[in-house]
Amino acid sequence: MKHLGSFHKLLFLGLLGCAQSTLANVTLPALITDNMVLQQKSEVALWGWADPSETVTVTASWTKAPVKATADAQGNWLVRVPTAKAGGPYTLTFEGKNKLTVNNVLLGEVWLCSGQSNMVFPVTKRPNSGSYTGIINAEEVIPKANYPNIRMFTVKNKVGDTPQKDVQGSWAVCSPQTVGEFSAVAYFFGKEVFEKTHYPIGLINSTWGGTPAESWTRKDVLEKAPELQPILARYELGLQNYDQKLADYKTQLEAYKQAKVADPKTPLTAPRELIGPTSNKSPYKLYNAMIHPLIPYTLKGVIWYQGESNVEHAYQYRKLFPAMIASWRAEWQQPSLPFYFVQIAPHRTGNPELREAQLLTMQTVPHTGMAVITDAGDSLDIHPRNKEVVGHRLALWALAKEYGQKNLAYSGPVYHDMKMEKGKARLTFDYMAGGLVAQGGSELKQFTIAGADSVFVPAQAKIEGKSVVVWSDRVKQPVAVRFAWREVPKPNFYNAAGLPATPFRTDTWRTPTQGKL
């Protein structure tokens, strides 16, 4: 027995030594691994963990000049390394009590790609997903996707009650074998930027379907803004008696499923999904687990496709979306971080107020841009499959604003102002790109007009030079005009560059979701 006790003692000491050795090792976040892309011509952040007070030496093969950091009392360390112009492959070495080497590193352009399911939507069909049916031209696109200088890091879905230190994921080199699981919008965006600039492209895909913008927003941002505090109040109210609510929900859901099986044509509504403590729709928790751990990885910019899950509180999105953008910029310490986003596509569950909130964000928040896709929606499918046009229109903004592509049209017409002329409204627009166009005819569709009674009626509209004239014989003294102001707009109003006009209204009358808590 004495011998056995000595054995246990030796085993304990050995395990303790292994644990101490493990603690001594320099470790890196998931982002800093083979095949990564770092932002060119900048000072990029590289970080990780080690023993408290341990010295970590970082050497980049493009400079040979090492940079050193000392881990703090919690073992955190961070260095900033100057990067050269686009190129590679290079290596990075990290050395403390151990040595790590990261291979096949490229210097190029790094874009964070985030949002809900339309940004998740992969190039190829995802079996049994229901939602992810693949892009319309997958058979043509996939065999040609031989772009080793385009890489994508896909963040594993996770919810976090508190800000997390790391994510799960890895960098995938674009090829016909890997591109199928790439976010299609991000892929087409990256491909076009690469083809026009020849810079390596790193795409960080942090997305989750069905998620509202508050899930991606830091908690204190929601707490400090009076307009956003109701989001947290709704969430906390939903958590009260949650176990009983969950049991009731499961019972209702089972009854709904059985009724649909018994009679599939019965017009039933599924019970509303609960937002519980582990829900991906709960506020701030995706920020904690899927955005915070990416900071401070140096970015060129952000592309964003989200909004469908905020249509019930569309007016609130006017405050929420800009607040989220501002907080991300502050966290990354990049106050002018470009942020280009997609206006939600036409769908029967859509809301013109949400599109307006997105338009107002573009007009009021510097260094933002909006891709309009009113011509690329599907009234019955909230996931339209033509993602190439979406990536292309996002890329136009980046190419024009970030990469110096001259004389490149990047936006469709945006309403500027209105004047009344003898019972008709004359509207002017920005971003005309050589002129205004009514595709498929001489008259513009989906304009409505109203008098002081706020009752909108269908209007006639035609292009006259650099303006649009709108009128109706039913409204003798018009005061307001709206364009494509509906759930499923199908307008024909473009500029000469073939980019569609954004829906808009000239009035500021109260909308259905205004004031909704």
Structure in words:
With 517 residues, the protein is of the alpha/beta class. It folds into 3 domains: 19-218 and 284-410, Rossmann fold; 221-281; 414-505. The protein contains 11 helices and 23 strands.
| First and last CA, distance | 70 Å
**What is the name of the CATH superfamily of the largest domain?**
SGNH hydrolase
How helical, in percent, are the residues? Answer: 25-40%
Number of domains: 3
Named CATH topology of the largest domain: Rossmann fold
Mean pLDDT: 94
Domain Sialate O-acetylesterase: 286-395
InterPro entries: Ig-like_fold, SASA, SGNH_hydro_sf, SIAE, TonB_box_CS
GO molecular function, one term: sialate O-acetylesterase activity
Coiled coil: 232-259
List keywords for this structure.
517 residues; alpha/beta; Rossmann fold; 3 domains; 4-stranded antiparallel beta sheet; 11 helices; hydrolase
Helix and strand arrangement:
Elements: H1 2-24, E1 37-39, E2 43-49, E3 55-60, E4 67-70, E5 76-82, E6 87-95, E7 99-115, H2 117-120, H3 138-141, E8 150-154, E9 171-173, H4 184-197, E10 201-207, H5 219-224, H6 229-239, H7 242-262, H8 285-291, E11 301-305, H9 314-332, E12 339-342, H10 352-364, E13 368-371, H11 388-401, E14 414-421, E15 424-430, E16 436-438, E17 447-450, E18 456-458, E19 460-464, E20 467-471, E21 480-483, E22 493-495, E23 504-505
Helix pairs in contact: 4-11, 9-10
Outline of this structure?
26% of the residues lie in helices and 24% in strands. With 517 residues, it is of the alpha/beta class. Strand 6 and strand 7 form a beta hairpin.
